[in-house]
Amino acid sequence: MEEALLLRRIREEFPNVTWTSHRYLTHGWDHAVLILDEALVFRAPRAARANRDALANEARLLRHLQPRVDVGIPDYVYESADGSFAGYGLLAGRELDVATFSGLSDTARERIAEQLAAFLTTVHETPKSVARECDVSEQDPRKDHEDLVRDVETLVLPRLASHEVEVIRAFLTELAAEVKPTRPAALVHGDLAGEHILWDADRRQVNIIDFGDRSIGDPALDFAGLLAYGQRFAQCVADQYRGPKDERKLWRAQLYFRRMALESMVYALQGYPCTFEEGYAEFRARFRV
Fold this sequence. Notes:
It is a single chain. The protein is α+β, with helices and mostly antiparallel strands. The chain contains 11 helices and 10 strands. It has 2 domains: 3-89, Phosphorylase Kinase, domain 1, CATH 3.30.200.20; 94-287, Aminoglycoside 3'-phosphotransferase, Chain: A, domain 2, CATH 3.90.1200. It has helices spanning 3-13, 54-65, 98-102, 106-124, 128-133, 141-156, 162-176, 221-224, 231-240, 249-269, 276-287; strands at 22-25, 31-36, 40-45, 76-79, 86-89, 94-95, 186-188, 197-200, 205-208, 215-217.
């Protein structure tokens, strides 16, 4: 939904909502986002073919999680009648990118690890029946892997040097061995990376946003993004995690962390708002080539 249309729809649907300034965020992949007076956030799916109930289902799931988690999560208090957009009170905090994380004290990092571990424990222990009632999709690991292999082979490998191609093909073979449809699955956030983790330093509080990629999948997925902060931090979160027992969780998270670099290159070549160069830099760093 374009900026002017979303502003008009908010005025029409919620006449009691007033504001003097707004910011329209353009860097999101799946949603248009408006921030009103740095107090309210309104989101609208970008794709015209998006499930019209997606935001309503997200709101239902978050209302289930709200009293069960200690971190802040969106509380949708405004939902349009047709489900095309919804709004919640802005969650405080700075995006926890690697640079921000690097500048934090050990005490702050420990606090963040503790809160993330508790959050992931609660999310992953959410009954799948609850997730399904909120229309959370279930991943198909084998199909997802086949799609990735096809896209990497056709789009990415022709652009790389021969030694890089060999590294990627060896990795895809290693990854295929971990693609098991019988692996226990759980509700996952699905995109727990720095741009979706906010650190409110004043309240020493973690806030988590953007549950648009929620699914029923491998819990290790939610540890992959944490590896951007280093193995030690991810291990600290894993040590405090009380969810499903899994000794190979961080091993698979490492695989997913590297897979994300390949996905970034694929997405760039498919027209998503990222660049091939960014994905390639991630690939070089994470595969150490």
